C-alpha cells in the first residue's frame, strides 16, 4: 500500500490500517506549502487506526491525525510539521529523533513513548500524558506543557527552553543533568524540593513563584 491508496480507502470510510508499512512516505498529498491552503477534507486522517504501523522517517506535514490510534507505532526520525495530534493515542510509540514544530498534542496519550533525542519546537502538549516516557537528550523549545503528566519519565540530559510547565506533574522523574532555561514551573509538582540541584536551571520560575538560576552541583 502507498499513501495515496491509504487516503482513498480512508475517504471511502475505512479506518483500520493497523500494521501498515508506510516508512518514508510523504503524507502531504495535498502538496500544500501553508496550512491555510488546505481545502476541507484534504490531508484528513482523524480517528484513523495506525496501531503498530511502520512510519519510520515519514514526512507528516499539515496532516490532521486528531484522535488517531498510534499505539506502538514506529515514527523513528519522522518529520511532523503543523500536525494535529490532539487526543491521539501514541502510548508506547517510538518517536525517537523526530523533528516536530508547530504541532499540537493536546490531551494526547504518550504514556511510555520513546522520544529520545527528539526535537520539539513550538508544540502544544497541554494536558498530555507523558508518564513513563523516555525523553533522554530531547530538546523542547518555545512550547506549552501546561498540566502535562511526566510522572516517571526520563528527562536525563534533556533541554527545555522558553517552555511553560505550569501545573505539570514531575513526580518520580529522572532529571539528572536536565536543563530548564527561561521556563515556567509555577505550581509544578516534584517529589523533592531540591530536585534542581542535579539540573541546569537558568532564569526559570520555580513552583513557588520565585526565579532561579544555578549551576550543576557535583
Concise overview:
4% of the residues lie in helices and 13% in strands. It has one helix and ten strands.
Number of E strands? 10
N-end to C-end Cα span: 54 Å
Q: Could you say which overall geometry the principal axes of the C-alpha atoms support?
A: elongated
Overall average residue pLDDT: 96
Number of helices: 1
Helix content: under 10%
- Radius of gyration based on Cα positions: 18 Å
**Beta-strand residue fraction:** 5-15%
Low-confidence stretches: none
Based on helices, strands and strand pairing, what is the structural class? mainly beta
The strands making up the biggest β-sheet line up spatially as 1-2-3-4-5-6-7-8
User: How does the major sheet shape up?
Assistant: 8 strands, parallel
Order of helices and strands: HEEEEEEEEEE
Write a concise keyword list for the protein shown above.
4% helix, elongated
Structure description:
- The chain is mostly beta strands and 218 residues long.
- The protein contains 1 helix and 10 strands, in the order αββββββββββ.
- The protein has one helix spanning 3-11, and strands at 59-61, 79-81, 99-101, 119-121, 139-141, 159-161, 179-181, 200-202, 204-205, 211-212.
- An 8-stranded parallel β-sheet has the order 1-2-3-4-5-6-7-8, with no helix packed on it. Strands 9-10 form a two-stranded antiparallel ribbon.
- A hairpin with a 5-residue loop joins strand 9 (204-205) and strand 10 (211-212).
- The longest helix is centred in the N-terminal third of the chain and has 9 residues, at 3-11.
- The chain starts with a helix and ends in a 6-residue tail after the last strand.
